Amino acid sequence: MKRDTRIVHAGRPKYRAGSRPVNPPVVRASTVDFESLDAMDAAERGSRAGEPVSAYGIHGTDTTFALEAFITELEGGFGTKIFSSGLEAISSVFLGYLKPGDHVLVVDTVYSPVRRLLHRFLGERGIGFDFYSPREPDIQRLIRSSTRMIYTETPGSVTMELQDIGTLAQLARQHDDLLVVCDNTWASDSVIGLSSMVHTSRLSPVPSTSAVTRTC
Amino acid sequence: MTLRGARTLHVRYPAHAERALKVAGWLESHPAIARVLYPVLPSSPDHSQWQSQFDGAAGLFTVELAGEVRGQTKKFVENLTLFGLGASWGGFESLALPCDVAANRSVDDWSERGDLVRLHIGLEDPQDLIDDLDTALSTLR
Prior knowledge:
The structure holds two protein chains of two kinds.
Chain A: H1 3-9, H2 37-48, H3 62-75, H4 86-97, E1 103-107, H5 112-122, E2 128-132, E3 147-153, H6 165-173, E4 179-183, H7 188-191, E5 200-206, E6 210-215
Parallel strand pairs in A: 1-2, 1-3, 3-4
Antiparallel strand pairs in A: 4-6, 5-6
Helix pairs in contact in A: 4-5
Chain B: H1 2-6, H2 9-28, E1 33-37, H3 47-53, E2 60-65, H4 73-78, E3 84-85, E4 95-99, E5 116-120, H5 126-138
Parallel strand pairs in B: 3-4
Antiparallel strand pairs in B: 1-2, 2-5, 4-5
Helix pairs in contact in B: 2-5
Protein backbone atom coordinates (compact mmCIF):
# COMPACT_ATOMS: atom_id res chain seq x y z
CA MET A 1 0.00 0.00 0.00
CA LYS A 2 1.11 3.53 -0.67
CA ARG A 3 2.01 5.92 2.14
CA ASP A 4 -1.23 7.92 2.23
CA THR A 5 -3.30 4.74 2.54
CA ARG A 6 -1.09 3.44 5.32
CA ILE A 7 -1.41 6.74 7.20
CA VAL A 8 -5.18 6.39 7.19
CA HIS A 9 -5.33 2.68 8.08
CA ALA A 10 -2.39 1.97 10.41
CA GLY A 11 -3.10 1.54 14.12
CA ARG A 12 -6.91 1.35 13.77
CA PRO A 13 -8.91 -0.69 16.30
CA LYS A 14 -10.09 -4.19 15.43
CA TYR A 15 -13.78 -4.91 14.87
CA ARG A 16 -15.40 -6.36 17.98
CA ALA A 17 -18.89 -7.83 17.66
CA GLY A 18 -19.12 -6.31 14.19
CA SER A 19 -18.22 -2.71 14.94
CA ARG A 20 -15.38 -0.52 16.08
CA PRO A 21 -14.73 3.10 16.95
CA VAL A 22 -12.96 4.90 14.09
CA ASN A 23 -10.23 6.01 16.46
CA PRO A 24 -8.98 3.92 19.38
CA PRO A 25 -10.76 4.87 22.59
CA VAL A 26 -8.67 6.53 25.28
CA VAL A 27 -7.71 3.81 27.75
CA ARG A 28 -6.09 5.03 30.96
CA ALA A 29 -4.92 2.66 33.64
CA SER A 30 -2.37 2.26 36.39
CA THR A 31 -2.97 -1.18 37.87
CA VAL A 32 -4.07 -3.94 35.51
CA ASP A 33 -6.22 -6.66 37.08
CA PHE A 34 -5.96 -10.27 35.79
CA GLU A 35 -8.47 -13.07 35.98
CA SER A 36 -5.82 -15.72 36.72
CA LEU A 37 -2.10 -16.06 37.42
CA ASP A 38 -1.70 -17.71 34.03
CA ALA A 39 -3.19 -14.64 32.35
CA MET A 40 -0.86 -12.40 34.39
CA ASP A 41 2.18 -14.47 33.43
CA ALA A 42 1.20 -14.42 29.76
CA ALA A 43 0.73 -10.65 29.82
CA GLU A 44 4.07 -10.08 31.55
CA ARG A 45 5.87 -12.36 29.10
CA GLY A 46 4.25 -10.57 26.17
CA SER A 47 5.03 -7.14 27.59
CA ARG A 48 8.69 -8.07 28.14
CA ALA A 49 8.87 -9.36 24.57
CA GLY A 50 7.64 -5.98 23.32
CA GLU A 51 4.18 -7.15 22.33
CA PRO A 52 1.29 -4.68 22.63
CA VAL A 53 0.03 -6.27 25.83
CA SER A 54 -0.71 -4.31 28.95
CA ALA A 55 0.75 -5.85 32.09
CA TYR A 56 0.95 -2.56 33.94
CA GLY A 57 -0.55 0.78 32.97
CA ILE A 58 2.69 2.74 32.79
CA HIS A 59 4.00 0.32 30.15
CA GLY A 60 1.20 1.21 27.80
CA THR A 61 -2.48 0.72 27.05
CA ASP A 62 -4.41 -0.05 23.86
CA THR A 63 -4.36 3.69 23.02
CA THR A 64 -0.60 4.08 23.22
CA PHE A 65 -0.05 0.74 21.47
CA ALA A 66 -2.18 1.99 18.57
CA LEU A 67 0.02 5.09 18.20
CA GLU A 68 3.16 2.97 18.43
CA ALA A 69 1.84 0.60 15.75
CA PHE A 70 1.04 3.59 13.55
CA ILE A 71 4.55 5.02 13.82
CA THR A 72 6.19 1.64 13.25
CA GLU A 73 4.10 1.21 10.11
CA LEU A 74 5.02 4.65 8.78
CA GLU A 75 8.71 4.23 9.54
CA GLY A 76 8.86 0.70 8.25
CA GLY A 77 10.56 0.02 11.56
CA PHE A 78 10.92 -2.85 13.97
CA GLY A 79 9.14 -1.22 16.86
CA THR A 80 8.24 2.04 18.57
CA LYS A 81 8.22 3.26 22.13
CA ILE A 82 6.43 6.49 22.88
CA PHE A 83 7.36 8.89 25.66
CA SER A 84 5.67 11.92 27.10
CA SER A 85 8.46 14.31 26.07
CA GLY A 86 11.24 14.51 23.53
CA LEU A 87 13.96 14.76 26.15
CA GLU A 88 12.57 11.69 27.92
CA ALA A 89 12.82 9.72 24.67
CA ILE A 90 16.34 10.99 24.02
CA SER A 91 17.47 10.30 27.60
CA SER A 92 16.18 6.74 27.31
CA VAL A 93 18.23 6.21 24.15
CA PHE A 94 21.41 7.39 25.90
CA LEU A 95 20.71 5.44 29.09
CA GLY A 96 19.75 2.33 27.16
CA TYR A 97 22.74 2.20 24.84
CA LEU A 98 25.62 3.85 26.73
CA LYS A 99 27.42 2.82 29.90
CA PRO A 100 30.17 4.47 31.95
CA GLY A 101 33.38 4.66 29.93
CA ASP A 102 31.53 4.98 26.61
CA HIS A 103 31.88 8.03 24.39
CA VAL A 104 29.28 9.71 22.19
CA LEU A 105 29.79 12.18 19.34
CA VAL A 106 27.03 14.79 19.29
CA VAL A 107 26.28 17.26 16.51
CA ASP A 108 26.77 20.89 17.57
CA THR A 109 23.26 21.74 16.31
CA VAL A 110 21.60 19.31 18.71
CA TYR A 111 18.31 20.18 20.41
CA SER A 112 19.71 22.29 23.25
CA PRO A 113 18.27 20.37 26.25
CA VAL A 114 20.45 17.42 25.14
CA ARG A 115 23.48 19.61 25.78
CA ARG A 116 22.30 20.13 29.37
CA LEU A 117 21.62 16.41 29.77
CA LEU A 118 25.19 15.62 28.72
CA HIS A 119 26.88 18.33 30.79
CA ARG A 120 24.82 18.03 33.95
CA PHE A 121 23.90 14.39 34.10
CA LEU A 122 25.55 11.88 31.75
CA GLY A 123 29.02 13.43 31.94
CA GLU A 124 29.02 13.13 35.73
CA ARG A 125 28.14 9.46 35.35
CA GLY A 126 31.11 8.55 33.22
CA ILE A 127 29.73 9.04 29.70
CA GLY A 128 32.28 10.91 27.58
CA PHE A 129 31.09 13.23 24.82
CA ASP A 130 32.37 15.60 22.17
CA PHE A 131 30.46 17.90 19.89
CA TYR A 132 31.17 18.05 16.17
CA SER A 133 30.34 20.72 13.63
CA PRO A 134 27.46 19.92 11.27
CA ARG A 135 29.93 20.98 8.56
CA GLU A 136 32.67 18.63 9.82
CA PRO A 137 34.17 17.01 6.70
CA ASP A 138 35.95 14.17 8.53
CA ILE A 139 33.99 12.62 11.38
CA GLN A 140 36.25 9.56 11.29
CA ARG A 141 39.06 11.54 12.94
CA LEU A 142 36.79 12.25 15.94
CA ILE A 143 35.90 8.61 16.59
CA ARG A 144 37.71 7.07 19.57
CA SER A 145 38.00 3.41 20.49
CA SER A 146 35.35 4.08 23.16
CA THR A 147 32.89 5.85 20.80
CA ARG A 148 29.64 3.88 20.80
CA MET A 149 27.24 6.40 19.33
CA ILE A 150 27.01 9.27 16.85
CA TYR A 151 24.03 11.38 17.87
CA THR A 152 22.80 13.70 15.16
CA GLU A 153 19.85 15.84 14.18
CA THR A 154 18.91 16.85 10.66
CA PRO A 155 18.16 19.60 9.89
CA GLY A 156 20.04 21.00 12.89
CA SER A 157 18.09 22.74 15.61
CA VAL A 158 17.43 26.40 14.70
CA THR A 159 20.29 26.79 12.18
CA MET A 160 19.00 24.00 9.91
CA GLU A 161 22.23 22.46 8.56
CA LEU A 162 21.62 19.03 7.03
CA GLN A 163 23.52 15.89 7.88
CA ASP A 164 24.33 13.16 5.42
CA ILE A 165 22.86 10.20 7.28
CA GLY A 166 24.05 7.75 4.62
CA THR A 167 27.68 8.77 5.11
CA LEU A 168 27.34 8.55 8.89
CA ALA A 169 25.79 5.10 8.61
CA GLN A 170 28.56 3.91 6.30
CA LEU A 171 31.17 5.24 8.70
CA ALA A 172 29.51 3.49 11.63
CA ARG A 173 29.36 0.25 9.71
CA GLN A 174 33.16 0.23 9.57
CA HIS A 175 33.27 -0.02 13.37
CA ASP A 176 32.04 -2.81 15.63
CA ASP A 177 29.26 -1.63 17.90
CA LEU A 178 28.73 1.98 16.80
CA LEU A 179 25.17 3.32 16.66
CA VAL A 180 23.91 6.26 14.63
CA VAL A 181 20.99 7.98 16.32
CA CYS A 182 19.08 10.66 14.43
CA ASP A 183 16.63 13.12 15.93
CA ASN A 184 14.09 13.41 13.13
CA THR A 185 11.87 16.01 14.74
CA TRP A 186 11.70 18.56 11.87
CA ALA A 187 10.87 16.22 9.03
CA SER A 188 8.48 14.02 11.02
CA ASP A 189 7.75 10.44 10.13
CA SER A 190 5.47 10.91 7.19
CA VAL A 191 7.52 13.29 5.08
CA ILE A 192 11.12 12.27 5.52
CA GLY A 193 12.33 9.91 2.86
CA LEU A 194 15.83 9.10 3.90
CA SER A 195 16.70 7.01 0.91
CA SER A 196 20.27 6.95 2.13
CA MET A 197 19.08 5.01 5.17
CA VAL A 198 17.88 2.09 3.12
CA HIS A 199 20.95 0.08 3.98
CA THR A 200 20.57 0.50 7.69
CA SER A 201 18.13 -1.45 9.78
CA ARG A 202 16.26 0.58 12.31
CA LEU A 203 16.47 -0.72 15.80
CA SER A 204 13.79 1.43 17.28
CA PRO A 205 12.21 4.59 15.90
CA VAL A 206 11.40 6.97 18.75
CA PRO A 207 8.16 8.80 18.04
CA SER A 208 7.89 12.45 17.14
CA THR A 209 11.48 13.14 17.86
CA SER A 210 14.07 10.52 17.17
CA ALA A 211 14.84 7.54 15.03
CA VAL A 212 17.50 5.17 16.17
CA THR A 213 19.36 3.48 13.41
CA ARG A 214 21.72 0.62 13.81
CA THR A 215 24.04 -0.35 11.04
CA CYS A 216 23.99 -3.95 9.95
CA MET B 1 -5.00 13.19 19.99
CA THR B 2 -1.60 12.57 18.40
CA LEU B 3 -2.97 9.71 16.36
CA ARG B 4 -5.96 11.74 15.18
CA GLY B 5 -3.67 14.59 14.15
CA ALA B 6 -1.29 12.21 12.40
CA ARG B 7 -4.06 10.96 10.10
CA THR B 8 -4.04 14.28 8.25
CA LEU B 9 -0.33 15.07 8.56
CA HIS B 10 0.35 14.23 4.91
CA VAL B 11 -2.33 16.69 3.83
CA ARG B 12 -1.29 19.49 6.16
CA TYR B 13 2.48 19.28 5.76
CA PRO B 14 2.61 20.11 2.04
CA ALA B 15 0.34 23.10 2.77
CA HIS B 16 2.76 24.29 5.47
CA ALA B 17 5.74 23.74 3.19
CA GLU B 18 4.19 25.54 0.23
CA ARG B 19 3.35 28.58 2.36
CA ALA B 20 6.71 28.51 4.13
CA LEU B 21 8.61 28.47 0.84
CA LYS B 22 6.67 31.49 -0.37
CA VAL B 23 7.23 33.44 2.86
CA ALA B 24 10.91 32.38 3.09
CA GLY B 25 11.52 33.44 -0.52
CA TRP B 26 10.03 36.84 0.19
CA LEU B 27 12.07 37.27 3.38
CA GLU B 28 15.31 36.47 1.52
CA SER B 29 15.01 39.67 -0.48
CA HIS B 30 14.12 41.92 2.47
CA PRO B 31 16.92 44.36 3.44
CA ALA B 32 16.47 43.71 7.19
CA ILE B 33 17.13 39.97 6.65
CA ALA B 34 20.72 38.81 6.17
CA ARG B 35 19.82 35.22 5.37
CA VAL B 36 17.04 32.66 5.59
CA LEU B 37 18.12 29.28 6.95
CA TYR B 38 15.86 26.79 5.16
CA PRO B 39 17.24 23.92 3.09
CA VAL B 40 14.12 24.01 0.92
CA LEU B 41 15.27 27.32 -0.62
CA PRO B 42 17.30 26.83 -3.82
CA SER B 43 19.84 29.35 -2.43
CA SER B 44 20.55 27.13 0.61
CA PRO B 45 23.97 25.42 0.62
CA ASP B 46 22.10 22.25 1.71
CA HIS B 47 19.44 22.41 -1.01
CA SER B 48 20.70 19.55 -3.18
CA GLN B 49 21.14 17.35 -0.11
CA TRP B 50 17.62 18.22 0.97
CA GLN B 51 16.32 17.25 -2.48
CA SER B 52 18.03 13.87 -2.33
CA GLN B 53 17.16 12.99 1.26
CA PHE B 54 13.68 14.39 1.89
CA ASP B 55 10.23 13.93 0.40
CA GLY B 56 8.80 17.00 1.99
CA ALA B 57 9.39 19.76 4.49
CA ALA B 58 8.11 21.28 7.67
CA GLY B 59 7.02 24.92 7.56
CA LEU B 60 9.73 25.79 10.08
CA PHE B 61 12.77 27.90 9.26
CA THR B 62 14.98 30.55 10.77
CA VAL B 63 15.77 34.09 9.68
CA GLU B 64 19.05 35.80 10.46
CA LEU B 65 18.43 39.50 10.85
CA ALA B 66 20.82 41.99 9.27
CA GLY B 67 23.64 43.32 11.43
CA GLU B 68 22.18 46.85 11.19
CA VAL B 69 19.10 45.81 13.17
CA ARG B 70 20.97 43.85 15.86
CA GLY B 71 19.26 43.84 19.25
CA GLN B 72 15.79 44.47 17.84
CA THR B 73 14.30 40.98 17.78
CA LYS B 74 11.96 41.77 20.68
CA LYS B 75 10.52 44.70 18.77
CA PHE B 76 10.25 42.63 15.60
CA VAL B 77 8.38 39.68 17.06
CA GLU B 78 6.15 41.75 19.33
CA ASN B 79 5.04 43.83 16.34
CA LEU B 80 3.81 40.72 14.56
CA THR B 81 0.04 40.36 14.84
CA LEU B 82 -0.61 37.02 13.08
CA PHE B 83 2.31 35.15 14.65
CA GLY B 84 2.10 33.88 18.19
CA LEU B 85 5.27 33.69 20.28
CA GLY B 86 6.10 30.07 20.92
CA ALA B 87 8.43 27.15 20.39
CA SER B 88 6.39 24.53 18.58
CA TRP B 89 5.62 23.65 14.97
CA GLY B 90 3.32 21.47 12.89
CA GLY B 91 0.21 23.15 14.28
CA PHE B 92 -2.19 25.26 12.21
CA GLU B 93 -0.93 28.49 13.74
CA SER B 94 2.07 30.66 12.86
CA LEU B 95 4.68 31.18 15.56
CA ALA B 96 7.85 33.23 16.05
CA LEU B 97 10.66 32.54 18.50
CA PRO B 98 13.87 34.55 19.05
CA CYS B 99 16.77 32.09 19.45
CA ASP B 100 20.07 32.74 21.23
CA VAL B 101 21.98 30.19 19.22
CA ALA B 102 25.50 31.29 20.21
CA ALA B 103 24.83 30.02 23.75
CA ASN B 104 23.96 26.60 22.37
CA ARG B 105 26.98 25.95 20.17
CA SER B 106 30.42 24.86 21.35
CA VAL B 107 32.12 24.13 18.01
CA ASP B 108 30.74 26.61 15.48
CA ASP B 109 30.99 30.29 16.42
CA TRP B 110 27.72 32.16 15.91
CA SER B 111 28.59 35.15 18.10
CA GLU B 112 29.35 37.44 15.15
CA ARG B 113 26.21 36.54 13.25
CA GLY B 114 22.93 38.43 13.16
CA ASP B 115 20.11 37.78 15.60
CA LEU B 116 18.05 34.69 14.81
CA VAL B 117 14.28 34.33 14.86
CA ARG B 118 12.69 30.98 14.13
CA LEU B 119 9.35 31.11 12.31
CA HIS B 120 6.71 28.46 11.98
CA ILE B 121 4.47 29.13 9.00
CA GLY B 122 0.92 28.10 9.77
CA LEU B 123 -2.04 27.59 7.46
CA GLU B 124 -2.97 31.26 7.11
CA ASP B 125 -2.88 32.85 3.65
CA PRO B 126 0.84 33.40 3.01
CA GLN B 127 0.27 36.91 1.63
CA ASP B 128 -1.30 37.96 4.94
CA LEU B 129 1.76 36.56 6.75
CA ILE B 130 4.09 38.41 4.38
CA ASP B 131 2.19 41.66 4.97
CA ASP B 132 2.42 41.10 8.74
CA LEU B 133 6.18 40.44 8.55
CA ASP B 134 6.66 43.45 6.27
CA THR B 135 4.91 45.74 8.75
CA ALA B 136 6.90 44.39 11.71
CA LEU B 137 10.23 44.59 9.86
CA SER B 138 9.49 48.15 8.76
CA THR B 139 9.53 49.22 12.44
CA LEU B 140 13.22 48.25 12.73
CA ARG B 141 15.95 50.71 11.92
